[in-house]
Amino acid sequence: MTITTQATLLQEPELRPFLPLLYVAWADGDLSEAERALIQSRLSAQPWLKPRLRDALNAWLQPAEPPNAASLAQVRAAILDAVPNLSPRAKRSFVALADAMAALDGESRRVVEALEQELGFDVAALHLPSAENTSEQDARPPRFDAGALQAVLDGRLAPSRARARAFLADPKHRAMYGVPKEPYREQVFTWLLSLARAGFGALAYPGVTTDAEQGLGPFLATFETLGFGDLSLVVKFGVQFGLWGGSVYFLGTEAQRQALLPKVASLDAPGCFAMSEVGHGSNVADLETVVRWEATRKCFVLHTPGESARKDWAGNAALHAKYATVFAQLEVGGVRHGVHAFVTRIRGDDGKPLDGVRIGDCGHKLGLNGVDNGRIWFDHVELPRDALLGRYATVTENGEYQSPIESPSKRFFTMLGTLVGGRIAVASAGLSASKVGLAVALRYASTRRQFGATSEPETLLLDYPSHQRRLLPHLAATYALHFAVDEAREAFLSLKPDADTREVEAHVAGIKAAATWHATDTLQACREACGGQGYLAVNRLADARADADIFTTFEGDNTVLLQLVAKGLLTGFKQQFARGGAWSMVRFVAGQVRDAVAMTNPFTSRMSDDASLRSAEQQLAALKYRESSLLASAAQRLGKRLKGKGDPAKAFLEVQEHLLAAARAHVDTKVLSAFIAGVERASGPEHAALDRLRQLHGLCVLERHTGWFLENGAFEASRARAVRKLIPVLFEEVRPDVLSLVEAWGIPDECLAAPIAFNDPAHPRW
Amino acid sequence: MTITTQATLLQEPELRPFLPLLYVAWADGDLSEAERALIQSRLSAQPWLKPRLRDALNAWLQPAEPPNAASLAQVRAAILDAVPNLSPRAKRSFVALADAMAALDGESRRVVEALEQELGFDVAALHLPSAENTSEQDARPPRFDAGALQAVLDGRLAPSRARARAFLADPKHRAMYGVPKEPYREQVFTWLLSLARAGFGALAYPGVTTDAEQGLGPFLATFETLGFGDLSLVVKFGVQFGLWGGSVYFLGTEAQRQALLPKVASLDAPGCFAMSEVGHGSNVADLETVVRWEATRKCFVLHTPGESARKDWAGNAALHAKYATVFAQLEVGGVRHGVHAFVTRIRGDDGKPLDGVRIGDCGHKLGLNGVDNGRIWFDHVELPRDALLGRYATVTENGEYQSPIESPSKRFFTMLGTLVGGRIAVASAGLSASKVGLAVALRYASTRRQFGATSEPETLLLDYPSHQRRLLPHLAATYALHFAVDEAREAFLSLKPDADTREVEAHVAGIKAAATWHATDTLQACREACGGQGYLAVNRLADARADADIFTTFEGDNTVLLQLVAKGLLTGFKQQFARGGAWSMVRFVAGQVRDAVAMTNPFTSRMSDDASLRSAEQQLAALKYRESSLLASAAQRLGKRLKGKGDPAKAFLEVQEHLLAAARAHVDTKVLSAFIAGVERASGPEHAALDRLRQLHGLCVLERHTGWFLENGAFEASRARAVRKLIPVLFEEVRPDVLSLVEAWGIPDECLAAPIAFNDPAHPRW
């Protein structure tokens, strides 16, 4: 073939549409005589083909004279030139490729379609670019407006988030690493003071230190945003304003709130939240610390009866707290009334522990070493009568116990309700840490090359399928959880005062477990995806990983929280519960759920093609089906055991795994449905980008549970394979959006800080 | 029913065997008239039944007078009294229970069997004890001898392990935490000096500093054992004696070895291993550092041409190394010969960097802060001719390049072979860290109680199904990997000098990836399973977790190593490879594997009952089937792409996920088969204990891949369910052995150290 022929092929608009096919004809290996003849006859038969072009085609297709490597490379280059603006989907069809080479008329389109079918060539043989193309990809203009997407994500609380971002962007407030425990703790206290002075603490007490109408939204949004920065500060912020101040706010009388909260908000009254005991981490009802009413002296006496009753983990306690809210068993006139909350001083103005109060330091931890967790022992400490936080219970001067809530169990759960806000806060902070981790890892993966095809630049990490597997499902899940946390927060914020909080509690508990486990997994994946760089403190992943690790345990151990979710599912119908006792309720729910499953079943006959697998409705139906089935199975097992009048606690233990599986499935559904609703908050290209991510997220969840779907006959093998095949396609579709999706989180550069996030390994931004 | 009747039931040997059935008859709920009549007729028909006993039975079975709760409880107590010595398996059968109540004769046995079948009662309704029983369980004598099992695990290298244990048991060598970087690094160097002086370093160079015959076994066993202690020390030990000294040992001439290694072993010549560059972590072939032969001056010149070529991560470099083995592209007379290793001084005796050498500090890391990782830049540093480690290549005085290995690629891989020992070492150290983590978490779970049944002591953590799920699969996998690492080490140790190492390399690469990912997962599970306690540095899990985290990345990134495994599987047959090129080989392997799959297929028709699911042969057959299928699928895909004469690197990228899946499946098989072989090294009760664990491990692997088995028609839904149901049964069977299994690792108490491992939260053993 002459150089002229080649040039003709490349430049003539009539021939250009056929270049991909002609290229693959040779590049795919041996062009059989039959195939050659087919192409030649199809093309030569075209009436519009000028003789000059026909000759060029014939020359290209001479079996005796296959094009050499240089010719093939030139043709491929011409194709690649035309390709980059195509969607990944288009890159899989010869027709779409032909269109990109030169506008196709109806005639040529039919020829290409026919040839594609008849020849059975595979577009894959074109080796359409990953490495070369995707680096260009990142250079090309983004497909949507990251700012517009950020507005969607920030939602109604955008102004509060903006204020918190500005705080983080101040170089004085940059996260630290490698600092010894003692100066680190002091630095965190100084930052906390800045936050207090800037009015962030006051946000926690609407109606006392800020307008009642604004509610707790701005405080929670601040907390979430601070999660982009130093997590020790976030936790200290949560301990001081959320737990310590929050206990007064939620459990105190109006007088107690007015007396204490302004000082809490300004950090003039630093305090801690002394609930957990070393022997009773999650089991608050069985705390041993006791507060006894002394009728003669008309005061309370607070006492730690033994080593297992020592207060443990209390943040702020080891160094800075002057106050504590102490949870203890209240005993009045020899009668125990259950766990109640008391406020007491633990340190004097000189910072020394008061008489009868012994304070220890929990010492070094895996992370969060800027937080001074401590232990407290009380030795017959006298408390005045108004030390009891009095919203739900008081003791009169005559030693009479009074409470507006008769049921001790309801009283207990009402008091625990103070923890709900903290759980949302922890979930959202964990999510923010995940965002930082993904921002670092994805930005690094978009610049870092390693190995790759011969004689080309090394391949970008993000173009390795294994690397996409490592990170992109986490990216999608992070978006999903963003909307799920948002939904849970709004549910919490719209609770009426004194409303029954159990449903919201279960909702929040599930989201907290999901978001914090997600943070652990995501930050670990990010750490590993950055290799040795991820292990260096300077790149932020190390500390974020270590700091966020405890989120799965504190503010409620995740497994314990999932049990709460499971119980919530079983007791869904409060009235049935009240009427017939636990057993009838379980039987009722089991029956009800069985019906629901029978009704949902038909979905299994749909969902075969890619469009269904991508559909929000179908994905949600699949997850709901799984949830209902698991719940029915757990409820039936439980019902069977309770029927024998067995100990309910034992019965719950025996079906624990089933209950936890049902709870997890419920949370999966919740998260996907929140994502689906969230996508609708955006429009245009932002909507499209979010929807691609939602598709990916849904598919990843389906894939994770493929075994279950297969085992329960909801999937056939072909559907399982279809899910698995579609995921890499979604990776490719999401791939060009990655950096914009990261940008939309609005993480200040000062928080990213990691040199590898700025393609600048030599120059830390710290 | 009178008290006399009840007493008769409880004491008469003729009636006692029926107590479990009689108890369940009522405890399971409503005894139907038909059921009652059936029991009564079956029992009353017994010729041996005295009238007095028949009356007692009839009284118990009066439908109008069901026994009250107190009677039921008394019967249950009598059953429990007789039960504790039964195996968990026996606790699931009424016949075995009957046997435990009083010796059964043939007649009564037939009656119980018949009733069990006819009634379909469920033993589970007995609520056979978990909580009460298992706390007693731990107090009862162990079922096997932990010392005997330790002898099996320690194997032929027991003496070396014992010496290393003695080192660790010395209070001076206890792991540290919470120490700032600088003093920590100095402490680790001091420990390293103690190791060197005690002769542990000399173990690394058989034939030079120790007897040739003993081989590297004692060195590797020492490394593994040191993994119970401070992991910074382990890594520093590996860098000094394994990497730095090892490069001289494996790549140096006899003269170079004799000159350097005695000083390396005594730590008079501390050094580092400068291979990785910041731009080329895993891609050693593309390193940029260059060494040029200067013909006129008859010397080499070592140079760092740009920032991406800076040497990075080198342990020992930031502070202590005076020497370095530097890997660089060798250029002689304008010709590049690929990567070679050179020895050079980097610091003078005064500890200051030499002229032309710039050294930086990698700074704080997630863990291992006792290791001084550094960066090195070289500015035209002159090296003498014998700086080139000369076993595989030399440059003559006349500037002539000579090598006994002609193929540059073979030469390169031969030099990389020096890393194989290090990978075994890292795998085994990761495994030791897992053992420490599990020892802490399992000992804690065996003493810590939380929540539980009403009016009983709170339930032990280890008796929660969710807690067993968290920890016991890791326990089983740790044992599996112990034997797998052992097997890989022996394969490495029995390599003949200059033998083709590729097969062993692939073997070791797979085990290293499996063991280090396992360490990360296990330590995380242990951390979470200990809740807040696990987050405290004093309990050791935090640092072990953070330190071991990098093991998945260093000495070969795990994903890259799995690709090596995959390539090893494809190139399994070296000769085919040599003859027909990569493509024919792939086609050959694909064909061969397809046949293997067809042959293996029949296993799917067996493996239905529990006995098959527990069988070593069947478990292994299932994993082999999976491996072959995945390999065949990957090879076919690859072959298809290579047929089109595509770029092999791109083809590999496109099928990367399939290749990785095949590699993982291969490693699963390797590990299980090593475990099966390992079980056979024990006998008697130790053999039985190991076999229970092996059953559990195999089932957990099958369960993890249930989706695949279902999708590929190897499992039906019923088999998947059978696997899932059998796992908790195995948990129960393994449960009584847990503490002895932990003890058999022989971890010195000084290494456990964690207060929670000694049921003593108040008193650290540090």
Compute the separation of the termini of chain A in Å. 60 Å
List the chains of the largest interface with their residue counts: A-B, 89 and 89 residues
- Please estimate the helix content of chain A: 55-70%
Average of the residue pLDDT scores of chain A: 85
- Class by SSE composition of chain A: alpha+beta
Quaternary arrangement of the chains shown?
A: homodimer
- The CATH fourth-level homologous superfamily of the largest domain in chain A: Butyryl-CoA Dehydrogenase, subunit A, domain 3
How many strand units of chain A? Answer: 11
| Low-confidence region ranges of chain A | 129-137, 573-585, 594-605, 761-766
Assign an overall shape of chain A: elongated
The second-level CATH architecture of the largest domain in chain A is Up-down Bundle
Q: Sheet bearing the most strands of chain A, described?
A: 6 strands, mixed
Helix segment tally of chain A: 31
Beta-strand portion of chain A reads 5-15%
CATH class value of the largest domain in chain A: Mainly Alpha
CATH fold assignment of the largest domain in chain A: Butyryl-CoA Dehydrogenase, subunit A, domain 3
Summarize this entry quickly.
By secondary structure, chain A is an alpha+beta fold. Chain A is about 55% helix and about 5% strand.
Protein model, in words:
Two copies of one chain form a homodimer. In chain A, the strands form three sheets. In chain A, strands 1, 2, 3, 5, 6 and 9 form a six-stranded mixed beta sheet that branches. With 766 residues, chain A is an alpha+beta fold. Chain A folds into three domains: 3-128, no CATH class; 271-419, Butyryl-CoA Dehydrogenase, subunit A, domain 2 (Beta Barrel), CATH 2.40.110; 420-755, Up-down Bundle (Butyryl-CoA Dehydrogenase, subunit A, domain 3), CATH 1.20.140. Chain A has 31 helices and eleven strands.
